[in-house]
UniProtKB/TrEMBL annotation:
Keyword Membrane tagged: yes
Membrane topology field: Multi-pass membrane protein
Annotated TonB-dependent receptor plug domain residues: 44-153
Name this protein carries in UniProt: TonB-dependent receptor
Localization per Swiss-Prot or TrEMBL: Cell outer membrane
Any one GO CC term of the record: cell outer membrane
GO biological process entries: siderophore-iron import into cell
Organism field: Arenimonas terrae
Keyword tags: Cell outer membrane, Membrane, Receptor, Signal, TonB box, Transmembrane, Transmembrane beta strand, Transport
Length: 729
């Protein structure tokens, strides 16, 4: 650790060491400040648009797909990929959706991407089955999460250690030989507690491979937690939590989509050339968290963390040097290559290249938040001082194998040597400090804050001629310093109605040796929030003005570019309106009739003209619309709840999206489909411990193109039905 970093952590933690305290109530369950909110009450007073999806809401449909969970939140944009949400693409307020790389994603307040700074688009996302709540924060409060503050922050809260001995088993079976199983058990004694949790998911998949083959996945996820709390006679309440997890996945998934003609004939088809495509991943998580209450209004939360992630996605890359995206976009020009993809004709030897996308990652760090509550006359302050020391790495060690298509089967003709396709290491070291004060003065809540990011990035390129690490070709280094201010204000007009506004600087750091500047913007919002009895509503207008929009070449974005390269897009503006409404017509009665509605309108356009080699942009004129941002999104839900049963119906309108920037009528083959997707859920409680439930996703069996990246048209999940039982003990 450098002397600068040692000095920074010493200064950040020193005030806590000299503060006195009284013994707190040992019976309370503490919520640390590492999480974005911690509870629903904080959301309602947030100086900006905020959403908290609790466990009861998550259980209603028991979704395994984070895309389906987040559709109910306005201002959140989603691009599906394989239909299960295993590798989600999430954006907030036009931030961009490729692999969540433009937002801050956390689990229990800790950065969860395999390499959040060096490679934010890497393929890992927590398993939704073991998530008990979801926090979404937009506006100026995103500066406390960082480093990516343009759109907002997504925090997934894992299953907590229960206060009493309890547990749950949830098992369902469904379409395509799907098994979804989840269970946990835990307890908390006077001083010690713990929890064990496991998830098993498997399916044969809904796509059919020409000539036979697998298209499903298997997933295992296990987490263990231990807790110690100080005794009732301790001078300071303290809590120490240990969290350890392991996640493995074996998925027969591909980047190879379909031509439009083949999609129209059978959207769930997969070409023969994708038969060997498979991704295997393994993730390890270690986390040690400490909370100490140093006084009635002084607390310090510190967490040390490390994640390790390895993956190898073995998949078709190109055919005789022609990208699979180009072949599917123009199968007439590339008729020979298209025939080899489908297996209808034999190819020459070495015609098809399959790549061992072998990569390993680690991320580790220490982050701490000191909370100080104090009063100055009639003004109350809740001051937070946060520090994060972080380091991560991406290690690429890849090679290519060559194949021949022969009688509809792939036959390997050349076995590539490890490290001969890509042989490089990207490193990042970051120091983050933020200060935010929540000031309460009468009916006003003011939230000024500022974040500082110091990031050192490097990329070491090794020789691919030998694949060894004894020859360094080049070392590229980048240093980033950013000051990210934000300010939010809430006016509590009365106990039911509040107005809020915020403005902050949007920031996204560049990648290692990308040659691009940081992405910068000024983001503002203004809204109102109303809640009374069974009614809750929120209306927000927002605008994000980019002085420099950045595009990043990833394997998942498709196109002919070098992975990791970034492209400056100049000025752009994303503006829109978010609205949400919830009401329970039968609150307090024998039957409850909850309804909810959320709507997002977005206008996203470039504000300058330029030519770009980034394929999603191309030749841009001032006023062209950004790709993969829908103009309209709508979620509507209605239900009825009795004493022992429940029924809910959800509808999602997904507007078409451009896959390439432009204006006016969208050319054929350059858009996703608009669609209305219905989901139905029902449950019957046998007794206090047992519930039978069923759900149908995509009830009307809508066929629609969800994306055209990485290559070709990709389908949404077809109608799928599940039945299950949930047992609590």
């Amino acid at each position: 650790m450098s002397p600068t970093l040692r000095l920074a952590i010493t200064l950040a933690l020193l005030p806590a060491a000299v503060l006195a305290a009284e013994n707190p109530d040992q019976s309370l369950v503490r919520l640390d400040r590492i999480n974005v909110f911690g509870n629903l009450a904080e959301v309602k007073q947030a100086a900006g648009s905020a959403h908290y999806i609790d466990g009861e809401t998550l259980e209603k449909f028991a979704y395994r797909d984070i895309h389906r969970v987040l559709r109910q939140v306005p201002g959140v944009y989603l691009v599906e990929e394989e239909g299960y949400g295993l590798r989600p693409n999430i954006g907030i307020r036009g931030s961009g959706t490729d692999r969540n790389s433009r937002i801050t994603v956390m689990e229990d307040g800790v950065l969860i991407a395999p390499a959040p700074y060096a490679a934010p688009a890497a393929y890992y996302f927590p398993t939704m089955s073991r998530i008990s709540a979801v926090e979404i924060r937009k506006g100026s409060a995103s500066v406390v999460a960082g480093p990516r503050t343009t759109g907002g922050a997504l925090n997934l809260i894992s299953t907590p250690i229960p206060t009493t001995a309890s547990g749950e088993i949830d098992v369902s079976v469904g379409s395509d030989a799907t098994l979804l199983a989840h269970g946990w058990a835990g307890a908390m004694g006077e001083r010690f507690g713990g929890l064990i949790e496991g998830v098993r998911q498997q399916t044969d998949g809904f796509k059919r491979v020409d000539g036979g083959g697998d298209s499903g996945y298997g997933l295992n996820d296990a987490v263990g937690k231990l807790r110690w709390v100080s005794g009732p006679d301790a001078a300071h309440y303290q809590q120490l939590d240990l969290k350890i997890g392991r996640n493995t996945q074996d998925s027969d998934e591909t980047y190879l989509g379909l031509t439009d003609a083949d999609f129209a004939a059978d959207p769930n088809r997969r070409y023969a050339a994708s038969r060997r495509d498979n991704i295997q991943t393994e993730q390890h998580l270690y986390e040690l968290r400490h909370l100490i209450e140093l006084g009635d209004n002084v607390d310090l939360t510190t967490v040390a963390y490390r994640t390790e992630f390895s993956r190898n996605w073995y998949k078709l890359n190109d055919v005789q040097g022609v990208s699979i995206a180009s072949i599917l976009a123009d199968p007439a020009t590339y008729a020979a290559q298209y025939g080899w993809l489908t297996g209808s004709t034999d190819s020459p030897a070495n015609a098809l290249r399959l790549r061992n996308n072998n990569r390993s990652y680690y991320a580790q760090g220490l982050q701490s938040v000191l909370g100080l509550g104090f009063e100055s006359g009639a003004v109350a302050h809740d001051l937070e001082i946060g520090l994060r020391l972080h380091r991560d790495q991406e290690d690429r060690y890849q090679d290519d194998d060559r194949y021949q298509m022969l009688d509809g089967q792939l036959v390997r003709t050349t076995d590539g040597a490890p490290g001969t396709q890509e042989n490089r290491v990207g490193d990042a070291e970051a120091l983050s400090i933020y200060v935010q004060d929540t000031i309460t003065l009468g009916r006003w809540i003011l939230s000024p804050g500022v974040r500082y990011e110091r990031i050192d990035l490097s990329r070491t390129n090794y020789s691919t001629a030998t694949g060894r690490r004894d020859v360094v070709l080049s070392v590229n280094e980048t240093e980033v310093d950013a000051v990210i201010p934000g300010f939010g204000a809430t006016w509590l007009m009365n106990q039911n109605l509040s107005l809020f506004a915020s403005v902050h600087r949007g920031f996204n750091p560049p990648g290692p040796a990308s040659g691009s500047e940081s992405e910068k913007s000024v983001n503002a919002e203004f809204g109102l929030r109303y809640g009374r009895d069974a009614l809750s509503t929120e209306l927000v207008g927002f605008v994000s003005d980019y002085s420099n929009l950045v595009g990043t070449c990833t394997a998942s974005s498709g196109g002919n570019c070098t992975i990791g390269d970034q492209f400056d897009g100049g000025e752009a503006r994303v503006s829109g309106v978010e609205a949400s409404l919830g009401y329970d017509f039968g609150q307090g009665g024998a039957l409850s009739f909850p309804v909810s509605l959320s709507y997002t309108f977005t206008r996203a356009e470039f504000r300058s003209s330029f030519n770009s080699s980034f394929e999603e942009w191309g030749s841009i004129e001032d006023g062209d619309r950004l790709p993969y941002l829908p103009e309209h999104l709508l979620h509507a839900e209605a239900g009825v709840v009795g004493e022992r049963w429940r029924l809910a119906l959800a509808a999602n309108y997904l507007d078409e999206m451009r896959s390439v920037a432009g204006r006016g009528a969208i050319p054929a083959g350059e858009a996703t489909d608009s669609a209305v997707v219905w989901d139905l859920s029902a449950g019957f409680r046998i007794d206090k411990q047992a519930e039978l439930y069923a759900r149908v996703e995509n009830l009307s069996d809508e066929e629609y193109i969800v994306a055209r990246r990485p290559a070709g048209a990709r389908p949404g999940q077809p109608r799928s039905a599940f039945v299950g039982i949930r047992l609590a003990f």
